[in-house]
Give the backbone structure.
Amino acid sequence: VSVPNVLSKDMVKSMNEDPFIFAMSNPDPEILPEDAKEAGASVVATGRSDYPNQINNVLAFPGLFRGALDARLTRLTTKMFVTAAKAIADSVEDLSVEKIIPSPFDERVPKRVAEAIKESAE
């Protein structure tokens, strides 16, 4: 639970060098990416699609459900969620501070997540 604008530039400046800021409050993040970068953040992610590095559960759910259905699972384990997260991370091409996560439109991601779920279920 969070609120918009709760993280100030001074707070970011007080962090260790080159902090990563994941400001996930929607629709308005805890700090705007441009403010976080100005204050010294090296990587910034939000839940918003109009900024780079949108963190959104749409990357996980289609593949999670497809993998669970294909493997006829009745529950998902922590191991499966970690495996799915690794499949998402491994789908990033041209990793950079502006691209730490694949696009929600990358058709490879749900397939990779589904395969990861099925493999971790075996």
